[in-house]
């Protein structure tokens, strides 16, 4: 009935129209009801309105948004939330996470990497055991979580990668290029570490691990293994005597690593030949990474259900096996016993801050990239706390796994735990594999351990590659490259494989450690510090807090506001100063790097930082203005397209500007569409273009 009244002009007041409407309406109602009777007063009809407009005389939403539909409506696709219309936006072609669990698992896989297993436990026992936990968690609260939250919110708000987000202050887009350079370096050598883990994983599929005995062609007379047949029943005592009287003793696992797997050359400049087994494993690792990212976050989001969770299964299996071994408690106590006198040592606090900073992956660009695929209203504040705490808890848990096995090995050899403790590749490919040979069914534990290393590495490598691909695709930004994103991923993967080939030569480990120590060290600290200062002081902390409130529905807590503005930049500066003061020329075992190699390392570090001033100078020169000050203001001012990427979210100061006449037409005309259309039709011969435009607006 209401529908008929609408089409008969019931919304237009007037005696003649009202009488005609009541008569015809009453007749139709009697015919439908099958009899006569009193006619009820016709209700005011609901006139169809354009989505996003409000009826005159009714208050609109207080926040300037486009209305609040039923809050009990289930979430819509493409990033809509309850109380928001379903969207058709660029996220459809750019892509979103399938659900929030995929983002959390991907970020956990990105943050939890090889360093959690082979660096943190070593730092912990070297810096006071359990006492190291105190500065570690202090730095987590005041530096780690705030920086993590800042990068997640930065990428999520703009829905852009590490280059596109710098529309916030175009002069500092060089920071984004610096992040890309750092991610390129790390992605090259990180996959080489994964390929070595692949190699150990494959060779562990045997009845006897190849590094168990000293009877192999690559072993030297100095080799002494705990399971060698030529040792007497007092093998442990003999080895203890050997360890205490001479420094020549080498384990079979160390000789297998240096003389067979690497076939190590005597100098970083002597590349030697390519180690074909490692080259093949490098190809395998890049193929795996490419296949997992072949459809971007749509495919990698499914893979992380396994790659981010299964390492915890393996860690738990190894932990249960480790604590049941004799001497495991000694190793764990060595790991946890607090030495409170070291708390006052500045180096302990510096190590804690550095480990938090590097472990969470700040300033790599990966956090910004992963968050850019989030839905706009996702609670990234909650996610940042969950992911950061999970990362640190994993580091502590991995320490139990490592030191329970090392304690067992030290007990077996009759030496102190410090004699067998190591870090970095030495722990993963020498000390721990040797300890595994002492266990029954050692190949099984070796397979599990190296499979865990592979998964930990792949979780980080996924994000490194996606960071580069997303930055390239977002920067070009046209339909052609978006449709061919898979080919961009393939091109980056092939380039990464070719650049990693020199690291599989006989001098490859020298170059790998050089890149690890210089390419991603103090340059990351500088990049993170500049990002903090740019967002808080150049873009403005008030603007950024309002952006977060628009996105999350609440401003960042006061604690985070204080950390972002004062505490976190101060800690970052402290890390930079600490890194410079504690700098020592790199060495590998007894090999000292030559000066020219260290110079190359510094050039790699500077190559990412130098992007910032170069692009800033370029942007200032290209900006409008008669004076240098005007050019600087224009170069640092947020560009017009800064803000939420989706039109549905661009409200408040990001709302598109309409002229008053257009806005009044858009809101008033739907109230009387029939009258407007008839008036426009009658006036069209006189009004000409204005009338036709008015009629066209009414049809809209």
Automatic annotation (TrEMBL):
Keywords: Amino-acid transport, Cell membrane, Disulfide bond, Membrane, Metal-binding, Neurotransmitter transport, Sodium, Symport, Transmembrane, Transmembrane helix, Transport
One of the record's GO cellular component terms: plasma membrane
Protein name: Transporter
Organism: Calidris pygmaea
Catalytic activity: glycine(out) + chloride(out) + 2 Na(+)(out) = glycine(in) + chloride(in) + 2 Na(+)(in)
Species lineage: Eukaryota, Metazoa, Chordata, Craniata, Vertebrata
PANTHER family (alphabetical): SODIUM- AND CHLORIDE-DEPENDENT GLYCINE TRANSPORTER 1, SODIUM/CHLORIDE DEPENDENT TRANSPORTER
CDD domains the record matches: SLC6sbd_GlyT1 (cd11498)
Pfam families according to UniProt: SNF (PF00209)
GO BP term (any one): neurotransmitter transport
């Amino acid at each position: 009935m209401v529908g008929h009244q609408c089409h008969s002009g019931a919304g237009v007041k007037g005696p003649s129209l009202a009488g005609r409407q009541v008569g015809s309406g009453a007749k139709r109602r009697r015919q439908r009801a099958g009899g006569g009777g009193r006619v009820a007063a016709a209700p005011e009809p609901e006139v169809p309105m354009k989505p996003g407009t409000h009826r005159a005389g009714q208050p609109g939403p207080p926040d300037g948004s486009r209305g609040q539909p039923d809050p009990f409506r289930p979430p819509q696709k493409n990033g809509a939330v309850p109380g928001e219309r379903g969207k058709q936006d660029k996220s459809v072609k750019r892509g979103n996470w399938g659900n929030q669990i995929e983002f959390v698992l991907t970020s956990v896989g990105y943050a939890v990497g090889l360093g959690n297993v082979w660096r943190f436990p070593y730092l912990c026992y070297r810096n006071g055991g359990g006492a190291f936990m105190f500065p570690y968690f202090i730095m987590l609260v005041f530096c780690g979580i705030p920086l993590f939250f800042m990068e997640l919110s930065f990428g999520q708000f703009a829905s852009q990668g590490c280059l596109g987000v710098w529309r916030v202050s175009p002069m500092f887009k060089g920071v984004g290029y610096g992040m890309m350079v750092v991610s390129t370096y790390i992605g090259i050598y990180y996959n080489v570490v994964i390929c070595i883990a692949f190699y150990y994983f494959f060779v562990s599929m045997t009845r006897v691990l190849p590094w168990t005995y000293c009877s192999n062609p690559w072993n030297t007379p100095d080799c002494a293994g705990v399971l060698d047949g030529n040792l007497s029943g007092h093998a442990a005592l003999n080895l203890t005597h050997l360890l205490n009287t001479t420094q020549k003793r080498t384990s079979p696992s160390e000789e297998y690593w240096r003389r067979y797997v690497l076939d190590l050359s005597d100098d970083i400049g002597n590349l030697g030949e390519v180690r074909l087994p490692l080259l093949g494993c490098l190809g395998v690792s890049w193929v795996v990474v490419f296949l997992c990212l072949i459809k971007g976050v749509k495919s990698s989001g499914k893979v992380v259900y396994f790659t981010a969770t299964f390492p915890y299964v393996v860690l738990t299996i190894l932990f249960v096996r480790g604590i049941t071994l004799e001497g495991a408690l000694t190793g764990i106590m060595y790991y946890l016993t607090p030495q409170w006198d070291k708390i006052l040592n500045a180096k302990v606090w510096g190590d804690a801050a550095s480990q938090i900073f590097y472990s969470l992956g700040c300033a790599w660009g990966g956090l910004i990239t992963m968050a850019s695929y989030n839905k706009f209203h996702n609670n990234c504040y909650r996610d940042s706390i969950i992911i950061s705490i999970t990362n640190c808890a994993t580091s502590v848990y991995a320490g139990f796994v490592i030191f329970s096995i090392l304690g067992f090995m030290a007990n077996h050899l009759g030496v102190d735990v410090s004699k067998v403790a190591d870090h970095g590749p030495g722990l993963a490919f020498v000390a721990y594999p040797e300890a595994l040979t002492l266990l029954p069914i050692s190949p099984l534990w070796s397979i599990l351990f190296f499979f865990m290393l592979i998964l930990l590495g792949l979780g980080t490598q996924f994000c490194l590659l996606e960071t580069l691909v997303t930055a390239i695709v977002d920067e070009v930004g046209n339909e052609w490259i978006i449709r061919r994103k898979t080919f961009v991923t393939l091109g980056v993967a092939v380039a990464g494989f070719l650049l990693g080939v020199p690291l599989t030569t006989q001098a490859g480990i020298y170059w790998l450690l050089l890149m690890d120590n210089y390419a991603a060290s103090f340059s990351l600290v500088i990049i993170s510090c500049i990002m903090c200062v740019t967002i808080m002081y150049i873009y403005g902390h008030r603007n950024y807090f309002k952006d977060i409130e628009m996105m999350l529905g609440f401003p960042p807590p006061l604690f985070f506001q204080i950390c972002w503005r004062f505490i976190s930049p101060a800690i970052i500066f402290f890390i930079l100063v600490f890194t410079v003061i504690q700098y020592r020329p790199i060495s590998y075992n007894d090999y000292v790097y030559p000066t020219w190699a260290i110079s190359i390392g510094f050039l790699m570090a500077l190559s990412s930082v130098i992007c910032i001033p170069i692009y800033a100078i370029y942007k200032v020169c290209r900006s409008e203005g008669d004076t240098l000050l005007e050019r600087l203001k224009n170069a640092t001012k947020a560009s017009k397209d800064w803000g939420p990427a989706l039109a549905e979210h661009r409200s408040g100061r990001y709302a598109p500007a309409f002229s008053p006449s257009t806005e009044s037409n858009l809101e008033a005309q739907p109230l009387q569409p029939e009258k407007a259309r008839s008036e426009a039709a009658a006036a069209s011969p006189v009004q000409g273009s204005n009338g036709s435009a008015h009629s066209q607006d009414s049809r809209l």
